[in-house]
Amino acid sequence: QVHRDPRFDDLSGEYNPEIFMKTYSFLDSIKKQEKEMIQKQLKKCRNMEQKEKLQQLLNRMTQQEQAQKKQQERRERELSLKRQQRELAKQGKKPFFLKKSEKRKLELAEKYAELKRSGKLESFLSKKRKRNAIKDKRRLPSQKDL
Known about the structure:
Layout: H1 17-23, H2 26-44, H3 48-90, H4 100-118, H5 121-139
Helix pairs in contact: 2-3
Region (Disordered): 61-96, 121-146
Keywords: Nucleus, Ribonucleoprotein, Ribosome biogenesis, rRNA processing
Pfam families: RRP36
């Protein structure tokens, strides 16, 4: 019997994220139920070690959820850009594709707009300034070198 890995085998077909998300969308509801169950266990738990483990698990689940949302938004944004280009091509115009750096700039502008809407822009910018100041201090030569 020959063992084959579906990730690298052509017989399994090609990976399409949209089809994958539609096929396994039922997992989201299961994950939601598990998250609620962990939250209930966390409230009942008295053992500090167990409580810490449950808190770490809960944090990991929320981070995975946020990453999945962010990836889905990015995918939807790319699809909308592709649709716009197709419409322009149908009208007879030459398609224009954004560079990676321009996509990054648009993504950053969207992030700032979201932070401004939620009112967290100032705290984000202050943290960024502090990080940059620490980096600059590290790059400067120290006094004993002079």
